């Protein structure tokens, strides 16, 4: 190999073309001033000191000093790609959402996959939930479906989210661990919040160590509403089904991959797209009416429960193809701002208290993370349809109202820059009737934290069950306070006795704890029923 030989400072680089010309354009400052020398600061005399008037150096360092923005408070580590969504058939009977009106209609999308707990530099193969966030740039505004790769969630009410996340991130005194579930605070919180038991089963399953983003399902988790042109409402749960199939790694592989290539998942997505092997997911909908919701065994507003596919089959309505990597990771993947409140006519929220809190949280955090109310002006966040409103000013405003009108009502002439609200086509919230006392409590219909956890477990193959048992045993073996280990096992006793026993034995328990008091009744009839097909795959 040729050894490196220092040849002194050759000024602008000679034949290595460190100067403009031969096809290299002239470098400028951010103000556009052509730069004479980008490698040497301005000095008084050959050996300094440096001159304060060196605006080229000062501007360069000033900008560098401010390169970092806060990472996302959750889902900090992620990877995104562009693509499109294609509708298979018109769904105009159930929704007036513009993207679902015409068979074959294509809508641009940007999708970001992520882990939840780890910081930006954490390894990809952490045992963790994966985010699956899709921004549809529809002709009636951006619709963000901000989901996960697991169909249920740890908690039922957004007010508990800061506690859940505090417990899952680094412990506050020592600053570790992160991006893994193996620590006291996480298990302490979840074992004191029995509604998380169902999600824990999924999180300890192979689902939490996917082989790559391309082999994961996605779920909108909450129940949403679809509204048609007549104003009629149906409920809906959204699903993404990977056409590549569903694949995971085993824990030992995950550990090795994390050591050898912590960027394994992002590299996989990048390479697949560049090789023309575009990943595809089909969008599925479980659509049901009020009568089904009223008679369903669980509350459709409870995000810790799913709706079995054999009760409401998943109707496949279109596909998403990711076919373009980003041009710039920061400008696109980092600055993209997904938000559950970004919905469009034809889709609406339900009263799920987790969803209602999310609708506040994303916008709020993005103001801080992206630094200005005008982050919708960034190309990755800007709608690809006309935008007309009277919002103005603020940091970095790029599209202030043009002309005289910046308020309404106004009596200025009709033109492109003087929009009016449109009763016929504007977004209209579903006219659901609500009544009741203002109370701070959990609805009794949100009860039963174990039945669906049990159904998930018994739906697994023997090998998958073994992985779940091993995962609980491994993760809990890292928990130092023994009473927390016991509390977790006391919940597992309500899920499946063999599972609890196996975990207890692996942890060296001399005797098993009492089953956790099931604060809310467990449905015995479901205990006996067959495993759910949604869980099988
Ligand atoms: C970020 C999913 C619950 C607050 C995210 C992201 C996903 C996601 C996929 C990453 C978005 C991206 O790629 O930029 C979910 C799901 C939830 C859930 C599926 C439950 C069903 C919550 C709740 C809250 C919350 C209850 C707060 C009350 C946040 C915040 C971010 C975030 C603050 C960071 C957003 C940003 O900085 O851009 N969530 N989340 N999430 N989530 Fe959630």
From TrEMBL:
One GO term of the biological process aspect: hydrogen peroxide catabolic process
Family: Belongs to the catalase family. HPII subfamily.
Span list, region Disordered: 1-32
Annotated source species: Alteromonas mediterranea (strain DSM 17117 / CIP 110805 / LMG 28347 / Deep ecotype)
Protein name: Catalase
Active site: 75, 148
Keyword Metal-binding appears in the UniProt entry: yes
Record keywords, A-Z: Heme, Hydrogen peroxide, Iron, Metal-binding, Oxidoreductase, Peroxidase
Segments forming domain Catalase core: 28-416
Molecular-function annotations in GO: catalase activity; heme binding; metal ion binding
Cellular component aspect of the GO annotation: cytosol
Positions contributing to heme binding: 72, 112, 161, 358, 362, 369
UniProt entry tagged with the keyword Oxidoreductase: yes
EC number: 1.11.1.6
Organism placement in taxonomy: Bacteria, Pseudomonadati, Pseudomonadota, Gammaproteobacteria, Alteromonadales
The reaction(s) this protein catalyses: 2 H2O2 = O2 + 2 H2O
């Amino acid at each position: 190999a040729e050894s490196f030989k220092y040849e002194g400072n050759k000024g602008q680089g000679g034949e290595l073309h460190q100067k403009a010309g031969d096809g290299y354009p002239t470098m400028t400052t951010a103000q556009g001033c052509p730069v004479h020398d980008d490698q040497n600061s301005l000095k008084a005399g050959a050996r300094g000191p440096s001159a304060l008037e060196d605006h080229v150096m000062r501007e360069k360092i000033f900008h560098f000093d401010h390169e970092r923005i806060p990472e996302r408070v959750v889902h900090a580590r992620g990877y995104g790609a562009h693509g499109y969504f294609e509708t298979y058939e018109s769904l105009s009977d159930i929704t007036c959402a513009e993207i679902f009106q015409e068979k074959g209609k294509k809508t641009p999308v940007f999708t970001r996959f992520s882990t939840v707990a780890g910081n930006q530099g954490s390894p990809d193969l952490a045992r963790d939930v994966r985010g699956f966030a899709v921004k549809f740039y529809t002709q009636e505004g951006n619709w963000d479906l901000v989901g996960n790769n697991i169909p249920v969630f740890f908690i039922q009410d957004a007010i508990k989210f800061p506690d859940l996340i505090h417990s899952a991130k680094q412990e506050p005194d020592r600053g570790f661990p992160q991006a893994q579930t193996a620590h006291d605070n996480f298990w302490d919180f979840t074992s004191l919040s029995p509604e998380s038991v169902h999600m824990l089963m999924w999180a300890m399953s192979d689902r939490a160590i996917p082989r790559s983003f391309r082999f994961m399902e996605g779920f909108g988790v909450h129940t949403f509403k679809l509204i048609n042109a007549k104003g009629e409402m149906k409920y809906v749960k959204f699903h993404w089904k990977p056409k590549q199939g569903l694949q995971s790694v085993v824990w030992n592989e995950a550990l090795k991959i994390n050591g050898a290539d912590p960027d394994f998942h992002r590299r996989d997505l990048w390479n697949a797209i560049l090789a023309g092997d575009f990943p595809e997911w089909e969008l599925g909908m479980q659509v049901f009416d009020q009568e089904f919701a009223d008679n369903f065994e669980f509350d459709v507003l409870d995000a810790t429960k799913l709706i079995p596919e054999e009760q409401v089959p998943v109707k496949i309505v279109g596909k998403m193809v990711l076919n373009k990597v980003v041009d710039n990771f920061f400008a696109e993947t980092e600055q993209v701002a997904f938000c559950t409140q970004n919905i469009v006519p034809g889709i609406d929220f339900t009263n799920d208290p987790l969803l209602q809190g999310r609708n506040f949280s994303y916008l709020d955090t993005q103001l801080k993370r992206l630094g200005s109310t005008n982050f919708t002006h960034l190309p990755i966040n800007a709608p690809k349809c006309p935008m007309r409103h009277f919002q103005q000013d603020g940091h970095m405003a790029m599209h202030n109202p043009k002309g005289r009108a910046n308020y309404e009502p106004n009596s200025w002439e009709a033109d492109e820059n003087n929009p009016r609200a449109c009763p016929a086509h504007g977004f209209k919230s579903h006219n659901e009737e609500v009544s009741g006392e203002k109370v701070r409590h959990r609805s009794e219909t949100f009860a039963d934290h174990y039945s669906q956890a049990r159904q998930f477990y018994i739906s697994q193959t023997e090998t998958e069950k073994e992985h779940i048992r091993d995962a609980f045993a491994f993760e809990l073996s890292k928990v130092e306070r023994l009473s927390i280990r016991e509390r977790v096992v006391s919940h597992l006793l309500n899920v499946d006795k063999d599972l609890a026993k196996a975990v207890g034995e692996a942890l060296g328990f001399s005797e098993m704890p009492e089953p956790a008091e099931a604060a809310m009744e467990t449905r015995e009839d479901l205990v006996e029923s067959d495993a759910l097909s949604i869980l099988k795959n």
